[in-house]
Specification:
Chain lengths: 223, 341
């Protein structure tokens, strides 16, 4: 791995977006993923290698998150740093030089306006090479079903933060299962547990974004 | 809350042994309306139905300390409405508030609300004032000034992702927003205390605390919570049912003496994390057990929870978080019996 690629991965791990960004404190005035990715492309480093750096950086920060060494704000910044990389890689996806692993329909369930978990999952999954169809927050069951039908072969992720909206999550899982029996469904969010995920008929549960990536990579056929 | 219940609460908070162990629940719109058999919209829009639902709860479960007790609220819309947030009230779903801050640049222009006149707050206060004689005739008093916490309100006004990102990218702006919200909350809590002299507690609900690491909480949470709880009241009560291992050790520093937490941390661990300085209100899993299981299972899990306690002081048996929807009277009775015999 070249020094530049290592730097990109490190900037993602630390959440360093660009030179202007004051975060993290000990990297002020240093270039972030934005400048470094631009430089890497100019130096002819392959987009697949850059994408691999994204995976590496996100994996490391995801592991730290799992160990309670960093928290949601740091993870959001890492995802933001990764998004800066993805902006530079968009033309390569468009030209077919980079292929997405698959499609992932994602949203926060009806009645719930919380977006932290959903956004984190969206950014991390996208950084791992999946196309994310982000339906937003307060997503009605019908909207999930329409999105699944419009994106054959996709997987679905449902998020909820409120204990009170878990009932809506359960209804949505059942409805998707009935309309599209083969689709893989993963659920997550503060009130969700492995037990509740099983009870509502989901295929997977993850307490963190990295777990969603693992689920997708293992459970969904990559086309 | 009756005088007797209030005295029991104060004894527990002082670390005195109260037998049998008190049972308490945070009850509000997620549970009460449907348990009482009315639509959530009716609960919010009809003062009599709101009062009747609360009265039925205290009459059906006289052993239970309901917290904060006769809580007039409009769900998550209550405080954001004062800042001008559009509020959506579905027929039988929980209401929610829409964002009012599109970017950090909007913060300076955000008007400072007047809690006596703005949003839904006058309705909330007036409902309580109108009901006060009947509440007191039932032997209860209004004991708490209640509000969503400053981080929670910030995340409603701006969006959680945007707010948490702003903390890292534009810390000065985040501080400005927190100052503005804290000023509002102080005014709001003061107004409630002035309106009801029987109030001797402050109750804040804030689950955004749970998403922050210690440095962020110390910068963007601690000073504001300290300011809000730094009032001459006896009970300083916090609800945060998101993760709490980071913030729990800091709660005594804020002055909090009663805590309702998420179900994922045991009461014993929480006692250690808070140096046994804080009374815990919990910690049965709310959905999987209290709402989702049958009475026998609730009973078994409750006994397990109590038996696991090495030290039974500073505990009020409850579920993690507030009472979730669909908890039956049968399960509540099983819980009470398992705790109190």
């Amino acid at each position: 791995m070249s020094e530049l690629i290592k730097q990109i991965a490190y900037c993602i791990e630390r959440g360093k977006v660009n030179k202007m960004s004051p975060f993290p404190n000990d990297m002020k005035e240093q270039p972030g993923t934005d400048e470094l990715t631009k430089q890497a492309i100019e130096e002819g480093i392959g987009p697949d290698v850059i994408l691999e750096a994204c995976n590496d950086g996100m994996q490391k920060v995801g592991d730290k998150f799992g160990r309670n060494e960093v928290f949601v704000p740091e993870l959001l910044m890492a995802a933001k740093a990764m998004n800066a990389v993805m902006e530079h890689l968009k033309p390569f996806f468009a030209a077919g030089n980079l292929k997405v692993k698959g499609k992932f329909v994602l949203g926060t369930v009806a009645g719930d306006l919380h977006d932290i978990g959903k956004n984190l999952v969206s950014m991390v999954v996208e950084g791992n090479g999946w196309q994310v169809i982000d339906l937003g927050v307060d997503v009605k069951t019908e909207k999930f079903i329409s999105a699944v039908k419009e994106n054959p072969g996709c997987a679905v992720g449902l998020s909820a933060l409120l204990t009170t909206t878990m009932a809506n999550m359960e209804k949505t899982v059942s409805a998707i299962r009935e309309e599209c029996p083969s689709v893989k469904i993963i659920v997550g969010g503060a009130p969700v547990t492995m037990n509740s995920a099983k009870r509502m008929g989901a295929d997977g549960y993850s307490p963190d974004p990295q777990g969603a990536v693992t689920f997708l990579n293992q459970s969904v056929s990559i086309g | 809350m009756t005088d007797q219940q209030w005295e029991a609460l104060l004894m527990v908070i002082k670390g005195e042994t109260v037998a049998p162990m008190p049972v308490g629940f945070v009850i509000d719109c997620p549970w009460l309306p449907n348990w009482y058999g009315i639509r959530i919209l009716d609960y919010f829009s009809n003062d009599q139905l709101w009062l009747d639902a609360n009265l039925k709860a205290i009459n059906d479960f006289p052993e239970v300390i309901f917290l904060p007790g006769f809580w007039s609220e409009f769900g998550m819309c209550t405080e954001p409405s004062a800042f001008g947030a559009r509020c959506t009230f579905p027929d039988n779903e929980f209401p929610h508030a829409h964002r009012v801050i599109k970017s950090a640049d909007d913060i300076d222009d955000l008007p400072q609300p007047d809690p006596s006149k703005d949003g839904l707050l006058p309705f909330m206060l007036n409902r309580l004032k109108l009901a006060q004689p009947k509440i007191e005739a039932a032997g209860h008093k209004i004991r708490f000034a209640v509000a969503r916490g400053p981080l929670n309100i910030a995340s409603y006004l701006m969006g959680s992702t945007e707010f948490l990102t702003m903390m890292m990218m534009q810390p000065d702006k985040a501080d400005n927003l927190m100052k503005k919200i804290t000023t509002f909350l102080k005014d709001w809590l003061t107004l409630q205390r002035e309106t009801f002299p029987s109030i001797d507690g402050i109750f804040l609900l804030d689950d955004i605390i749970g998403f922050m690491g210690e440095p962020e909480f110390r910068q963007f949470g601690l000073p504001y919570f300290k300011e809000l709880y730094d009032e001459n009241v006896t009970v300083k009560f916090l609800h945060n049912d998101a993760p709490c291992r980071v913030s729990a050790p800091i709660l005594p520093e804020i002055g909090i003496n009663l805590f309702n937490m998420g179900f994922d941390v045991s009461l014993s661990e929480l006692k250690e994390l808070t140096q046994n300085q804080i009374t815990m209100l919990g910690n049965l899993p709310p959905r999987d057990v209290l709402a989702g299981a049958d009475a026998a299972f609730v009973s078994g899990k409750t006994i397990e929870m109590i038996d696991a306690l090495k030290d039974r002081t500073r505990i009020i048996a409850s579920c993690g978080g507030g009472m979730p929807p669909d908890v039956s009277s049968e399960n509540i009775k099983a819980f009470i019996k398992a705790v109190q015999g």
